[in-house]
Sequence to fold (140 residues):
Amino acid sequence: MLALAGFRRPLAAPVRSGGGAMPRKGKESGKGPAGPGAAAGPVAAAGDGCVRVAVRAKPGSRCSAVTDVTAEAVGVAIAAPPSEGEANAELCRYLSKVLEVKKSEVILEKGGKSREKVVKILVSMTPDEILEKLKKEASS
Fold:
């Protein structure tokens, strides 16, 4: 009995309330807009003065067009097949035309092989200005 006394845990041991080291789903505290001027929705200001746009791509369409602007993403039909990066290049080209910026200022940041993409706009425009242009294009 005396040999087992060293293996006992103290009764006042700290109790972990979270369990493992992984964060819990749905408990994203502190995840707000990226900074001043950040808009809620598919268009948000990046920390480095750029603007990020969440895009839901629809490749293989007859013509390129902004189909809808929702709270999650901007729907863009792309007139290029989804092979060998053709649709990604057409998406950047089309968004540069809609937003009236240079093609080199529109960069595909995430989603090279997915329909859910993030496009980075390297100009000093506010998210509201970009969202307004996209909504105007979607309504026409």
